[in-house]
Amino acid sequence: MKWTVLLIASIMLLSLSAMGQPNQFSTSTSGGAPTPSTPTSPESLGLQTPSATASSLTPSTQEKSQLLMKSDEQTAYAAAPQGFGATATGPTYKQVITPSGTYAPNSLYVSYAPQTVAGCNLYANLPLWMSTTGSGTIWFYEWYPNGMLDTQYAGSVYYPGWYKRWFYADVPGWHILQYYCNGWSNYAYVYVWGPSGNWVSPNPSPNPQPYPYPFYGENLVTYNFPSTGHTYKSYYK
User: Fold this and answer.
1) H runs (alpha helix) in 100-181
2) What are the tens digits of pLDDT across the range 105-155?
3) Sheet arrangement for strand 161-168
4) Could you say which of 73, 130, 164, 184 is the most buried, measured as most Cβ atoms within 10 Å of its Cβ?
């Protein structure tokens, strides 16, 4: 009887331990994209879940058709909400986390510079600000809450400088963002508030039943064609 109780207790401890482990992050890429390092999880960093940014920002019709937009440092910093001082955006929101043992000359901020951690509601849009130190092809990486990696070809830049793109909150939970342009950027962390466990369609009719996201496999590469406004996703098992 004693051994049975000990065995059950051990199984319970192992189960709890497994539940507490963060998702395994994929680093598999395709399409010629550089292979990233495994990102540091929000749990390992001890990040507190940020509250949702009260924002009605949305990309214009013109911006929706662009993967990358030229910007400048003044605009990136000026995007901060009025009255948001050091207290509201404390050190946690400005942590610069870079890949371990890897050169990361580029910068990535979310909502406004120099913020690197933010929260938003499901289906919200947040601006991303990118400061590149050189020219080259830009690959953008997004790790989903289940560890899946979405790699997106974002075009090429011919001069160092500031650029803007948009984050779309399509799945609840933590999202980790990074890009590559002749060197890596720091990570940016976005927590999306919404029903957990499933991708929820913003247009549920005629079938309101949610279904797991992503559809297949663990990795995908997204190719956008601004001229047609279409997005193509290739799934890999």
Assistant:
1) none
2) 999 999 999 999 999 999 999 999 999 999 999 999 999 999 999 999 999
3) 69-71, 161-168, 125-132, 107-110
4) 130
Longest Cα pair distance anywhere in the chain, in angstroms?
72
Question: Measured between alpha carbons, how far is 10 from 211 in angstroms, rounded to an integer?
Answer: 34
* Residue recorded with tokens 């601006």: 127
Tokens 């890999």 found at: 236
Specify burial of residue 221 (Cβ count, 10 A radius: 0-12, 13-18, 19+). Answer: buried
Other residues' Cβ atoms within 10 Å of the Cβ of residue 6: 10
Cβ contact 233:220 at 8 Å: yes
User: Which of 139, 173, 161, 150 shows the shortest CA–CA distance to 219?
Assistant: 150
pLDDT of 20-36, one tens digit each?
Answer: 344 589 999 988 899 99
186 near 195, Cβ under 8 Å? no
pTM, entire model: 0.74
List of long-range contacts for 213-217, beta carbons under 8 Å, 24+ apart: 213/144, 213/170, 213/171, 214/144, 214/146, 214/148, 217/148
- What is d(CA 108, CA 184) in angstroms, rounded to the nearest whole number? 10
- The residues with which 130 forms a beta bridge, in sequence order, are 108, 163
Helix, strand or coil, per DSSP, at residue 234: strand
Q: Sketch out the chain's domains with CATH numbers.
A: 25-82+90-196+207-236 (2.60.40.1930)
Q: Residue 75: what are its φ and ψ, rounded to 5°?
A: -65, -40
CA–CA dist 38, 234 (Å, integer): 21
Tokens of 88: 């509201």
CA dihedral 157, 32, 175, 222 (to 10 degrees): 90
